[in-house]
């Protein structure tokens, strides 16, 4: 590790105390960027491009007050981190989850800058959300919370300024309430949010995009090894939007998906999920255990993760830091050859070091889960021109975008021995365009 890397991390830690997730994300990126920049673009060092990229352009924090169904006053904290607008208007999801804090949103916003750059669509990076917990809330409570959240957020966003989308806890229902309130406050029907319903400005394939895009990326990884996904055993964590559509596409491509999970435990079906089984699962909500009443070969493992089950491919699709060093070793001992992240930063730094040391293929979220924001970008294009494209057209464009991201990773991540360091490829490939734009736009 170079002294400039250590100095930068120490400086960042000092400036951002108690933000471990943000420091983790910065460390994973700048470790690759500093040697690259020193060798290829020394002038970027003088312009302090990296120091500037890790400082958010704007951090907004606000109070969200709302009334619950018992007429009790509730108070949450809302945030929007506008990280970098060198390539285009700010873009990134909103997360509603009790664990949301400044550190988590800054790491997500930071990752988003590189991810959005990799898609090739002109988008800056942002993230936002609240420590509001939608679980167990009534529809009316969700609506009142979303309206109150938008009463402050609306003044900071706009179709040409900042275009939020969904993330954990924010799906089509929440986007609907947020959009409705924005429209009322501004008296404008514009593409200010993505992830809208398909009858009111949304894009086909947006719900599927992150999961499908993940599998298109994994397909590229296997094709580059002259292998196919047919018959491969896949473990998936999470049972939400990304996990569900990743499983659907994996099954379509001939793989055998054997797990889902949530914060209660892991559902393991050794026979593999089928489209019918997926449909049944989707009717159960968070009750994964309920699946066993119909499919008795399956097992529910309370409080356990999917990484102890034998697989060829592991797809972490739940949340950050859900796959640690011990899990990584378990996966390798059980013959796993590929880990691709549907979630953002689900693998710890130690886990990634094990993947790289063992030379198994590891695709970081900023590359592998970029399909969601890519189709959000396509939703913005459709809103601008007042059109709605067919599902096939959007799906084909998603596939091409994921193939291009894969090519970028190969270009900057392929080592002389032939091994592809996808993390390095994504970090450098995502960084270059942002750095060029920041240099061109001067000290702003
Ligand atoms: P959802 O809210 O739809 O689903 C999240 C799933 O992960 C739920 O099943 C949830 O279980 C589970 N989960 C959350 N926290 C934990 C935990 N600590 N332990 C075990 N399971 C957990 O979210 P998404 O599917 O949209 O997002 C999943 C991940 O993908 C996130 O990291 C997100 O940032 C990332 N992502 C999402 C995109 C999108 O388009 N939606 C785009 C790019 C990345 P439970 O219900 O029990 O909490």
Write the layout of secondary structure elements.
Elements: H1 3-15, H2 20-40, H3 42-46, H4 49-53, E1 58-67, E2 73-84, E3 90-96, H5 102-119, E4 125-130, H6 139-153, E5 162-165, H7 172-186, H8 206-224, E6 233-236, H9 241-252, E7 256-257, E8 259-262, E9 265-268, H10 275-282, E10 299-302, E11 313-315, H11 325-333, E12 338-340, H12 349-358, E13 361-363, H13 365-368, H14 371-385, H15 391-413, H16 422-440
Parallel strand pairs: 3-4, 3-5, 6-7, 6-11, 11-12, 12-13
Antiparallel strand pairs: 1-2, 2-4, 8-9, 9-10
Bound molecules: NADPH dihydro-nicotinamide-adenine-dinucleotide phosphate (NDP).
User: What ligand species are in this complex?
Assistant: NADPH dihydro-nicotinamide-adenine-dinucleotide phosphate
Question: Strand-residue fraction?
Answer: 5-15%
CATH topology of the largest domain: Rossmann fold
Rg from Cα = 21 Å
